[in-house]
Design a protein that fits this description.
Length: 451
């Protein structure tokens, strides 16, 4: 995948920040792999996607590479990447090669990947701490690989105290760094969001009874790629009728019928950054009464959560607001019994709303960063306060599966509304509103598409 690299200094700045953090822990060596290429079948590979942590620090999108950072008397950043190979490049495309990569991406050194297993054991000598993305690596054998290199290094030293004594995980510190997006990242995310929103518009305007779910998936893909997005950020969910009550239903063979709602949860990935939008609309262009009633509840819940998405609130405030509004709506429509306090206390609403109201968004669609104040592993910590530059989704929903104790008019209605929000100094900016969300506006858009 060829990426448009933003100003390369941002990757160097991140390496410098991480090296400073390593120095604060006594220094050491960090080893960060990118993702491996994976076989799909026989000679055929899955479309390659770099590892997000690796790319965040390097800007380097080729497969097989490793980044080594040394926080010692002087700091050093070293790339290992595939060497130039004219024969292979005829088949698979031009590679940077170590020399050009070092110059272009600002590494102090770069080596051919062929030297990885001799050079890394040498580089390990003299460092007390070994840092890596231990709990979040896209390299399946990372721990074994690190151990193998240490074992090899032991043969070259008299005193094994010359080798790292401590293994430290980079996942949390990188999660903290990635949680606050810089201006370049936000610009890319706005662009990704705009492409995705227009893809949803195209799908809505194409939709009509008799089409298959996969036909709308094709419209989305066509638009994403035509606008320059390299990929989807995740497999597109296109769910007609009862399928909308399956939260991660992949676009399949189902036919949209007159009277069905269609739920599309889809977003493109642009230059390494995800977007994530869900819209729900009637296949025939007109919400029925029960569909509209539940739709308005979900939309109100989204507005309630949006109002709590600001630096004045913590991460969970939006979810709490959405749950209150959804639960009151379920009571008003007779889908729940009792009082609001009882339904909240018992968790009865979870029968219809079983997921959370959002997640961090960034290089990964479910992006990294703790939802509680660090350390993330401690579940007793308070919810994290929102800060400008954080990006999250706001995505309440309601899903009514058929059951004898529920009014039949609501059966098989599945609704989710999802937008992407950048936290600002005073509130949040929804960056995905290039596709309408109000029921009347959706109906008007679909009418316009049918003419
Ligand atoms: N859009 C897919 C998800 O958030 O799980
Ligand atoms: Mn989402």
């Amino acid at each position: 995948m060829t990426l448009v690299t933003p100003a390369l200094t941002c990757f160097q700045t991140r390496r410098t920040q991480l090296l400073a953090w390593m120095q604060s822990l006594g220094g050491g060596i960090a080893i960060v792999p990118t993702a491996v290429e994976r076989t799909r079948n026989r000679d055929n590979h899955y479309s390659y996607r770099h590892d997000s942590d690796f790319y965040y620090l390097s800007g380097f999108a080729e497969a097989q590479a490793w980044l080594v950072l040394i926080a010692g008397d002087t700091n050093q950043s070293i790339l290992f990447c595939e060497g130039k190979n004219p024969e292979v490049e005829i088949w698979n495309g031009v590679r940077w090669g170590p020399e050009a990569a070092a110059a272009h991406f600002g590494f102090d050194l770069a080596h051919d990947l062929l030297d990885l297993h001799t050079r890394i054991p040498e580089l390990l000598v003299g460092h007390r701490n070994l840092f890596s993305t231990l709990s979040r690596s896209a390299q399946p054998d990372l721990l074994k690989q690190l151990q193998d290199w240490l074992t090899k290094a032991q043969t070259s030293v008299r005193d094994t105290r010359a080798l790292p004594q401590q293994w430290l995980d980079l996942s949390e510190v990188l999660g903290e760094m990635r949680l606050i997006k810089d201006a370049t990242e936000l610009a890319t995310m706005r662009a990704a969001a705009a492409i995705s929103a227009q893809g949803h518009v195209r799908a809505m305007q194409t939709a009509r009874p008799g089409l298959h779910e996969y036909a709308l998936e094709a419209e989305l893909l066509y638009h994403f790629r035509k606008q320059g997005a390299q990929s989807v950020a995740y497999d597109s969910i296109v769910a007609a009728g009862a399928n909308a009550c399956v939260l991660h239903h992949r676009a399949g063979n189902a036919i949209m019928r007159d009277g069905d709602l269609v739920l599309i949860d889809a977003g493109c990935e642009l230059d390494g950054y995800a977007s994530d939008i869900t819209r729900t609309f009637p296949a025939n262009g007109r919400f029925s009464g029960p569909q509209r009633a539940l739709y308005e509840i979900v939309l109100a819940a989204q507005q309630g959560a949006q109002a709590k998405t600001s630096p004045a609130h913590h991460w969970n405030a939006g979810h709490e607001a959405a749950v209150q509004i959804l639960t009151q709506g379920l009571l008003d429509e007779g889908l729940l019994k009792g009082t609001l306090a009882e339904a909240l206390e018992s968790g009865a609403y979870r029968r219809f709303y079983m997921h959370r109201t959002g997640h961090w968004l960034g290089m990964d669609v479910h992006d990294v960063g703790g939802y509680r104040s660090p350390p993330a592993s401690d579940q007793e910590r308070p919810w994290r306060e929102l800060q400008p530059g954080m990006v999250l989704t706001i995505e309440p929903g309601l899903y009514v599966r058929p059951a004898d104790d529920l009014a039949e008019k609501f059966w098989n209605i599945g609704i989710r509304i999802e937008d992407d929000a950048i936290v600002t100094a005073t509130g949040c900016e929804l960056i995905t509103r290039g596709v309408p969300v109000a029921a009347d506006e959706i109906e008007a858009l679909m009418r316009a598409g049918q003419t």
